[in-house]
Each structure stands twice: as structure tokens, then as C-alpha cells.
Amino acid sequence: MIAKPIVLGLGLAALALGSPTLAAPAPLPAPYKGVYQPQGVDEIGMWREDDESERRLAASPLVLRDEKLTSYVKGVLCEAVGNDRCNAARVYILREPSFNATMSPNGTMRVYTGLLLRVRSEAELAAVLGHEFGHFEHRHGVNGFKSARGATDVLAWAQVLASMSSSYDVRRSYQNLELSVYGSFFRYKRDQEREADLTGLGYLNASQLQPQAASAVWKNLMGEAEASARVRGLKKPNFNAIAFTASHPPDGERATYLSELALPEGASRGDGADRYRAALKPWLPQFLEEQIKLNDFGGSDYLIERLAEDGWTPELWFARGELFRTRGNQRDLANAADFYTKAIEANSNLAPAYRGLGLSLLKLGRTADGQKALRTYLQLSPAASDAGMIKLMVPGGTAQ
Amino acid sequence: MNRQIAISLAAVLALSASEVSYAHSLKKQGEAVQVADSNMTVTPSRDWNRLSGKVGKQTESWTLDGEQLNDVTFFGGIEPGKPLVKERSKKHDPLPKFTETTLLVEVPELLEGTYRTYKELAAFTLGASAPAKFLGRDGVRFAYEFTDRDGLTRKGEAYAVIVDKRLYMTAFDAPRLYYYDRAIAEFRALTDSARL
């Protein structure tokens, strides 16, 4: 990374210029100006669309309807950005397995379940939510729209003018212009992301939570991407390269500058990991199931192992068993049987673990042991949705 | 000039003629037809539309009102080691595979994994599965439900059987509201008529 010789007064300006190397922590956020109303036709139009979209969202079956979890997530946002700011946001948890959260101009915040599975503490969650709130506070939505419209306007006019000339040179200049306009448009988007990163970190620095968590989020994501690529036999991802059309700065750069901008004294603060685990506990098995069935072996195994750093639970052993059984090589089945057994040792009433164990053992040729496990599954869960099919695989065909 | 028009017209006609083979086609009531490039035949009890697009190598889709409204997919003998539908990218977005060791009881999970991965869904629920006859053999019938990115919840039902290590399946999904109930009986009749 190249350090720029001139460090501009605020980190914000330096970031906007694309220099991520900064010595000072991210600044405290400016006093909140209160709820704003849309200004100008563009913003008024966007809000109108946004209100309509939120109306549909509120009725959508994709929203996870758990008031307790939703108000917890909202609480973490408030913890990060302060109570006066957080009143501007309405939080919806969406059943989407990817790592994402968004906040739109009218204050609708969408938090994906894939994000909740991936962050491991209140501080990490607050880092992402603070970043999204930063977009909102800087009105990036409307500015991005204007920038895109400006870019396409320029190109449309240029194309008209170029088409009026038959010279090859003119057409080539148009192509050069096109590249340069799109280049600056995507760079503008990346700068918006950096600005939101900085603002998010400013909130975190001013909060009771550990600001170093922001950098950890990106490091974890890189770890997952690497694990996923490794298992798929792909090249190790380059976390420092910027694709021409990238809308976000590279993860490697983000992890570095977020770490540098975090208030050093903040490292001694709590990160709320225990509270986060407790809040997520009722949903963790489901989120894990949703992840495992995405067929990303490396990424899923990485996530499970990261969660297990705080101790293996029956649910985590079970999830790992499911992951290995789903891939289904003979060695995977042997491992799966082992993981299911560990889950059962820790919780002898975990019915689905007996199912997984039974199926794995049957496929390994250990028919008697497999049937025994399936019988236990039927005893523990006689009304299981697949009981009819399982009974066929057990001699006698009944649950006795 | 006239000659140019004639040439252009010929080109247009040639194009439209070559497109005929890709167009949707009508499957008439009572006529037995082979489906999904396989030996599986069905005899529809009413007219159906066959969609021209294919989601996978040995698949075929039929509909009454449109792809998103009621969608029957035939899987005609998926070989071991193959996914149910064509992968967008074998390397970057691999789909779960049907294997020689896949048990009939695991077929619902295979369909679930395929849908989730292909559509990047979190909202998918497997319903009841039970033994059922399909293609005259012992197979499985199962129900499922998922909410697609369009926010619409769809219900589904599928029948599957493994014959000579190959997977044969018919799957039907349609919006939970109205369309599912409207066509489920037609789908079951179609499945009952399937022969190998």
C-alpha cells in the first residue's frame, strides 16, 4: 500500500481520495441533524418508490417474524449509532442466506439472515449496521442515483455526437470516454463505500463496543472465501485487486484501514459476544441448515469451525455431520457418522442426529447399526415428516 | 432494391423457420409422448404446453398457464454424479449431485439443496414425504414450499424413483395461492400416466 505524502485534515477526505493509510482513528460522528425530509424531485421520487417497496416488504413472507430477534438487532444498531439516530431506522430481518445488509433512503434497514450467521458479536454486527447507517446519513442512495444518471447522460449525448461523425477516430474517442466515465462512476461508488466505512467506524469508536470488530468482519469473510475456493479447487481469491466494475473496495484494503481507524483504547471494551450468542441461539440451527444446503462445503465448514471456537455444541456437531453426509464421499460418510455420534453423546435426545447417523451407517455398509439408529430416530420423533420412508428401511417397518 | 427486399425476407423466413424447433409446443390430450430425452412417456389427460427452454440435460418443463404459475418438470433418468439441473458454473456455483449412494429418502434433500443453491434461497421447507408408486415401482412422494426472490410463496410436490441407478422424477410447483390447488390434480394425473 502506498502512503500519500499529504494527509488531509480529516480521514474522510483522504479516504475519498482513495488513500486508506491513516494514522488517526475515525472521527466522532457530527451531531445528528434529526429526521430529514426528501429534497428535490429526485429524492422525493426515490422516497416514494422506497415507501412502496417497504410496504411490500412489511407484508413479505421473506421477513423473519421474530419480534424478539428483530428488536435485539435494532438494539445493537442503537447501541452503535446512538438512540437519536436509530429512531430513523426500521429494521427487517430477511431470510436470505448471503452476507448482506442494506439501508435505503427512507430508513428501511434490511438485515439478511446470512449476515447474522456470519458475525459473531454485537460489535461485529454493529460495525456492519453502522456502515449501512452511514450510507443513509450521507444520503448515498440519491447521490449514487444522480451520479449514475449523470454518467449515462454524458454517454448518451456523446454517442449521439459520435454517430454523427463517420470518422473512426471519433468513435474510438467515444469508446475511451465510455471507459473513463464508467471507471469514474464505479470509483465514485467505491468512495461512497469507504465513506460509509469511516462513518460506521466513527459510530463504533464513540460507542461502548469494541471498534476493532469492524476489521474482524472482513478478515472472517476473507477466511470463508478462501476456504470455499480451496475446496472447490479454485485459485486463492485476490483480496487486494479492484475489478474495473467493483462497487466496493477490496476486502483486504477494508480490513487494513478499518483496523487502523479503530480507536486503540477501544480494544479493551467488550464486544458483546456472549449476548449475541444468546440472542441467536434459537435460530442458529436453522441458519446453519440453510447454509449447509447451499452446497458450499469449504465455506460452510469454515463457518461451523469458527462458531465452534467457543465450544462444540450438539447443534454444531450435527450441522457438521449434515455437511459431510450431503457431500457424501465414503470418507465423508465415515466422518459424518463420527460427528453425529458426538452430537448424540452431548445430547441423547437430538432426533435428527440419529437419522443422519443411521443413513450414513447404512451407506457405509453397517446395516444393523444404521437400522438401530433409525429405530431410535423413529422412537424419538414418531411423527417425523419422513417417518413413512424411514420405516421402510427398518425391518418390521414400525417404530417399535 | 426488390432483390434486396427478397433477400431480407428470405433471411427472416429462414430465421423464423429455424426458431420453430425452439418454440413452445402443444402436448395434446390422450397422446402418449416421450419426455426429457428419456424412455419415460406420459399421456396427458388434457392439453399442456411444453416450454422450449430446458433447465438441465435430461429435463423438460410443461405448464398450463406459464412457467412461473404452474411448472411441471420431468427429470428423465439423471445419471450418478450429475446435478438435477444445469450448473451455471461447475467451478464457482456447483450444485449438489445425485450419486450412486443417494437413498430414496435423501431425494427430497437433493431437490431442496438444488433449489436453495440455484436460487440462493433461505426460505425453503420440506414437507411430508411418504412411500408412493411411481413408474410402477416403489418410490417417494414429497411436498415442499419455498419463497422465491419475487416474494411469492410456491408450493410443490414431487414423485421420484431410482431405476437402474438413475433418478426419475416429476416435480410440480406453483404459487400457493390459487394456482397450486388449481393444477395439482392435473399434475398427479400426468404423473400417474408416466411409464418407463
Characterise the protein shown here.
The complex is a heterodimer of chains A (400) and B (196). Chain A has 400 residues and is mostly helical. Chain A folds into 2 domains: 41-266, no CATH class; 312-393, Serine Threonine Protein Phosphatase 5, Tetratricopeptide repeat, CATH 1.25.40.10. Chain A has 18 helices and 3 strands. In chain A, strands 1-3-2 form a 3-stranded mixed β-sheet, sandwiched between helices. Chain A is globular, with a radius of gyration of 26 Å. Chain A starts with 10 loop residues before the first helix and ends in an 8-residue tail after the last helix. Chain B contains 3 helices and 12 strands; from the N terminus they run αββββββββαββββα. Chain B has helices spanning 2-20, 107-119, 179-192, and strands at 25-27, 33-34, 41-42, 48-50, 59-63, 71-78, 82-83, 97-98, 124-134, 137-147, 153-163, 166-175. Chain B has an 8-stranded antiparallel β-sheet with strand order 1-4-5-6-12-11-10-9, sandwiched between helices. In chain B, a hairpin with an 8-residue loop joins strand 4 and strand 5. The longest helix of chain B is centred in the N-terminal third of the chain and has 19 residues, at 2-20. The model of chain B is unreliable at 12-21 (pLDDT under 50). Classes of the chains: A mainly alpha (400), B alpha+beta (196). Chains A and B meet through helix 16 and helix 18 of A and helix 2, strand 9 and strand 10 of B. Chain B: Keywords: Signal. Chain B: Residues 1-23 form the signal peptide. Chain A: Residues 67-261 form the Peptidase M48 domain.
